[in-house]
Amino acid sequence: MSSDIYNSVEQSQNLTLSVDDVIRHDDDDDEVQSSPTKIICDTNDNSVVRSILEFLPDEILLDIISYLKPYDIYHSLYNLNNRFNSIINDFQLTLHLDISYISKYEFDYCLSSILPLPSVLLRLHSLHISNDETYGAIALFIRQYPHLNIPSLRSLSLTDATITQIKFLFQRLSIELEHISIVTNRTIDMNDKRQLCQLLLKHKALRSCRLSLCDGVDC
User: 150-208 pLDDT, tens per residue?
Assistant: First the structure.
């Protein structure tokens, strides 16, 4: 028995994890303040890392999760247990989904496993979709969610979208947008630009708007 314990200790690589090394107490400080309280875990044992997370209070966990991308939150932590689900679904946790520069696997996961969740749609504040990195990404998004409504959405960024896709998403996603960014190298004629401006004027809460459009001359 003692030999087994000794071998287990020898095989493990200790990681010193400080809660205060993860949470910044003073936003004005450039350096993270460390706590003398240390937690020792085996980096090769996922169950031990999970146990450390479960040891933390809800407020600390919520603060940590708020720094993660939605993909990392739901792919790694969702459905581990009821407590994690409750924290992830907390309405204090606002979500910012950027599905522009990610792998095809991550893109498909976001569309199939994250966006269908009602709790996500009620807390999703910003969305960035791009055809630049994943070819046809915006078309796939529209095809899968033609009637998608995101009432909490406040910021929308589109990269390399067609004018048809831009108008469709503007009419479907939210009328409470505060920030809009459209960057495209596709040619957009003056008539389409006028229609786009009319759509923008419908967003009464709009605070900032970035338009980088191509007129076929200086693209």
Answer: 889 999 999 999 989 998 888 887 778 999 999 988 888 888 888 888 888 888 889 99
Beta bridge partners, 129, equal 99, 158
Give the whole-angstrom CA distance, residue 187 versus residue 41: 56
Q: Which amino acid is at 72?
A: D
Give 41's strand partners: 15
The answer to whether the CB of 172 falls within 8 A of the CB of 202 is no
Question: What is each CA distance from 41 to 16, 98, 158, 173, in whole angstroms?
Answer: 7, 32, 43, 45
CA distances from 61 to 19, 29, 73 (A): 10, 22, 11
Q: How many angstroms separate the CA atoms of 114 and 44, rounded?
A: 28
* Ramachandran quadrant class, 188 (left: phi over 0; alpha: psi -120 to 50; beta: rest): beta
Are 49 and 41 in contact by the 8 Å Cβ rule? The answer is yes
